[in-house]
Amino acid sequence: MALFDPFADFRMDGHVAIVTGGAQNIGEAIARTFSGAGARVMIADLDGDKAKAAAAAIARDTGREAMGIGCDVTKEADITACVAATAKAFGGVSTLVNNVGWGRAHDDPLAVSEADMIESYKLNTLSAMRMTAACRPYLLEAENATITNSGSLVGTVPAFDFIAYSAAKAALNHMMLGLAHYFAKQVRINTVLIGTVLTEGYAAAGLDAKAQEALAHPNNLTGRAGRPQDVANAFLWLASPAGSWVSGQTINVSGGGSRIRLKPE
């Protein structure tokens, strides 16, 4: 007699996942978790060498197929090549994770250039729509087809110091809600609103050591900053059959708190 397995619905055996920005940090944790749950994974990252190295490490640790490919998600040709390579290697695509996202801090939101606003939209919002369009033929043929997006808490709370990034992430939330209704019974689409998860990306975004130290001790209900695995666990729930009754949602994974920014006097 088989014993009841409460974790069976979290298995992703037979699924093929593309994870953009999956070579490090949150994206790598998502790719590793999906692979550990049984999925075959394609890591798409601007740094192709790092993507291949991450895929090799994941395959070694989980015993399942994983591949890496260089992909600039702001370029249509790169997206097309990534999806084609995934379908050729693994036979299709059932799971898309639009994880790519980045933004730079600015002291004066009104000094942000029009070009920077547009570039942020192209990277954080438009790339997700283009990836979705490229994957659509395969997703429509897949069982439990899902798209899960890396949103940000700053897309829902005031964030004048990340005005371009926060505006693009807010647009991502609304765009993906619209697409969830468009696909309805065919593809489940959800977005995870991610709170403070400290990575090396914060320094690249323009936050100095003092600012990062402040972020490391957030005023939220859990009293700590997040870890990449905290986010990856939420993605597994939403993308696996365990989340089969969840679609069109923005799920807050932020330690139970928000960071409201008030301009200093």
Overview of this protein structure:
The protein has helices at residues 25-36, 48-62, 76-90, 114-139, 163-183, 201-204, 209-215, 228-239; strands at residues 16-20, 40-45, 66-70, 95-98, 146-152, 188-194, 249-253. It is of the alpha/beta class and 265 residues long. The termini are far apart.
Task: Give the distance, in angstroms, between the N- and C-terminal Cα atoms.
Answer: 69 Å
DSSP summary: helix tally: 8
By secondary-structure content and strand pairing, the structural class works out as: alpha/beta
Q: How would you sum up the global shape?
A: globular
Give the SSE order as H and E letters. Answer: EHEHEHEHEHEHHHE
Strand content: 5-15%
The main β sheet shows up as: 7 strands, parallel
Radius of gyration: 18 Å
How much helix, percentage-wise, in residues? 40-55%
Spatial arrangement of strands, main beta sheet: 3-2-1-4-5-6-7
Please report the total strand number as a whole number. Answer: 7
Task: Provide the low-confidence segments as ranges.
Answer: none
Calculate the mean pLDDT score and round it. Answer: 91
Family: Belongs to the short-chain dehydrogenases/reductases (SDR) family.
Keywords: Oxidoreductase
Protein name: SDR family oxidoreductase
How is this fold's topology laid out?
Elements (H helix, E strand, L loop, with lengths): L15 E5 L4 H12 L3 E6 L2 H15 L3 E5 L5 H15 L4 E4 L15 H26 L6 E7 L10 H21 L4 E7 L6 H4 L4 H7 L12 H12 L9 E5 L12
Parallel strand pairs: 1-2, 1-4, 2-3, 4-5, 5-6, 6-7
